[in-house]
Amino acid sequence: MNMTRTTHLFWLLVLLFLSFLSGCTRQEKEPTGRKMSMKTDLLLRTTPVKNQGNSELCWIYAMLGTIECDRLQKGDSVNLSSVYMARTWLHDQLLSCYFSGGRKTVSMRGMATMTLHLLQQHGAHPYDYSSNKEGDKQGAPSWKALARKGERLADIAVGRKSGLKTFEKDVEKLLDEETGFMPRFVHLYGATYSPQEFAHSVSLPGGYVAMTSFTHHPFGESFVLEVPDNQLQDRFLNVPIDTLLQRVVSSLYHGHAVCWEGDTSEPHSKGIYDLSAEATQEERQQQFECFKTTDDHCMVIVGLAHSTDGRMFFICKNSWGTDYGYQGFCYMSYEYALLKTIAVIMHRDL
Q: Last residue of some domain: 165, 187, 202?
């Protein structure tokens, strides 16, 4: 009996440890749970659900999914490559690692606002760039392993003092081998674009505003959000949480999806994130300060629904494949969003 209890305790600790490490990645299928009856009030058009695999790139998938949804509302169907964005981010970080003398550790985690920076700096490619390497395809790169290989290249280059050009050549070779060759131009609908021109055709600089809601900074002002994944020190406009969620609802009714960042670690049924009671501004602040609310996942809010008891739910497009939730979509109650939202990024033109 004691041995059995010890074994059960051991495996429980192992599962908790793996859950802690998973971050925005999905390790197992969601529990079956009960299905709550929902009626859709509003649903924007979206591109197909994608799968980030075992990567930590939800911040790229969600922001690109938001832009794709916005383009669909304008009658422009575009599907953007997450692999290209991840590659540019890894390349930038490896350069920083090299110039740090090999001391800087490369991380593939981030916030959705960082995707906007990458779009403006490096441009974009359609989804069919190295489409056989995307997260929902067999043979997708392991970005963590790729980052470690790049760090090793930086260590070698620093040790040999071989210079920046040699290091960049080695990095490009590694990335080409693991993610596919990166084309210099984008060919689409009979036209040829540079990656920067293509990115500007789908998302103009300054087209999105980032918002948050915490009381340790004044409302109505912007501040650098203090979460570990805010690697570029992006600033977020601070507003009361009710105002923030009202802006989300308004954005949806104006035909614009919203990129959501927040905590999805709370216990939940299959594809339904819900809390039984409405939280206050003070409670969400306390949970944030005590690290009970963390920035662990990004999704795209694409619609509104209500349950049989009349409660509002946001419809979210996830990046864990179509076998998750409701063919890749999930429901998040207003109460859950009120407590567990870290930030949102929405179209500035409302």
A: 202
User: Cβ distance 111 to 224 under 8 Å?
Assistant: no
**What are 324-335's pLDDT values in tens digits?**
999 999 999 999
pLDDT at 36: 66
Query: Do both 83 and 217 map to the same domain?
Result: no
Distance in angstroms (rounded) separating the CA atoms of residues 273 and 338: 12
Helix (H, G, I), strand (E, B), or coil: what is residue 272? strand
Contact 339, 265 (CB under 8 A): no
| Whether residue 170 is found in the same domain as residue 83 | yes
How many domains does one find in the chain?
Answer: 2
Q: Examine the domain organization and report whether 48 and 79 are in the same domain.
A: no
Question: Residue 233, class by beta-carbon neighbours within 10 Å (0-12 exposed, 13-18 middle, 19+ buried)?
Answer: exposed
- Does residue 184 fall inside a structural domain? yes
Q: What is the pLDDT of residues 285-295, one digit of tens each?
A: 999 999 999 99
In this predicted structure, what is the pLDDT of residue 141? 77
Here the CATH number for the domain that contains residue 83 is 3.90.70.10
Low-confidence ranges of the chain (pLDDT < 50): 1-22, 27-34, 131-132, 138
In the prediction, which pLDDT does 19 show? 41
Specify the DSSP class assigned to residue 184: S
Same domain, 217 and 279: yes
Verify that 267 and 280 share a domain, yes or no. Answer: yes
- What's the pTM? 0.89
Name the one residue in this structure whose structure tokens are 């977020």.
236
Q: For the range 286-291, what are the long-range contacts, defined as Cβ-Cβ under 8 Å and sequence gap of 24 or more? A: 287/339, 288/214, 288/342, 289/216
